Amino acid sequence: MRGLYQVRVRSPRINYDFDIKRKITIIRGDSATGKTVLTSLLDQYSRGEYAIQWHCEAPCMLLPVNEWETALAQREGVIYFCDEDYPWILHARFVRAVNASRNYFVFITRDDLYQFSYSVDEVYRIKNSGKYNYLVPEFVRSLQVFHPTVVLTEDSNSGCAFFFELCKRIGIKCYSSGGKDNLLNRLSALHLTGEKILIVVDAAAYGPSSSLVGAYTARDSRNEYQIMAPESFEYMILVSRMFEERFRGSTELTSPEIHLADTHLSWEQYFFDLLSEATRNTPAQYSKSRLNLCYTADCCAKGSGCDFRAHGDKIGLMLGDQKNHFGNFHNDAPVV
User: Fold this and answer.
1) Is 181 in a helix, a strand, or coil?
2) Per residue in 272-304, pLDDT tens?
3) Where do the CATH 3.40.50 domains begin and end in the chain?
4) Hey, which of 5, 39, 127, 268 would disulfide with 204, CB 3.0 to 4.6 Å?
């Protein structure tokens, strides 16, 4: 399933307006915020309650409790809603079925669902204004200029190599946590004090970890923190000026939800495939396991022709609009 779907719900007492565009969406809210009312309205609508209007181009259904395996195996193109009391949500068999399904899922819960991989940009809280309810992102990116003294990246492959090279150039320390699930353990093990710590994560899969990391950084008065969360390292490269001509006029970067293949479990996988294809058989051919020199060296390091014509300070070029996170980074060479 792919695409963006607008959901508009009307009832005598309360209305909802929101969009769904990824496989997994999380809706959070404390008691009395109206999160369970949404599933109740869907249940009433499915039973033909005349006072409930539910508008969406894709079918919206409550995922059945007793026959969910049959439903997921036989149907596709459905937006399934599950509230926090859904009994199968923690079971490995259910997780595998969701990942393999060609449907969208909206989980309405107060808890972090560590068993799934989902974007931090698709975690929402319900806000209301009178009878109108709408969703607001729980994670808000900082636009403040930051001068880190330490960088901790969740990546251990090409993304890690890029930030190690960047930190070497500006003379600050860089560490890898070896994965988003190990961020807090790595932070604790470093025993840092008096540092400005920039945590670099892939937004596409950071959803389950965001709350715990946010709580940890809020409690730690010894250090100052900022989160840098591009969609993924591959996305950060793709939206740089290096690929400006290649994707000019295309919706592949601006509306990935309409281009995903059934094999893509996340936007991160989609952007990896897109970058791999865009650089195939070129000097800049991308590999996730080993960072190509083309993404850090001031061109042209290979002495060969380049279709991308990206010259000058390559690291600054790759950072693009993420430069606010590195206020102590200065371009040494112009990009032409």
Assistant:
1) helix
2) 999 999 999 988 899 999 999 889 887 655 555
3) 5-137
4) 268
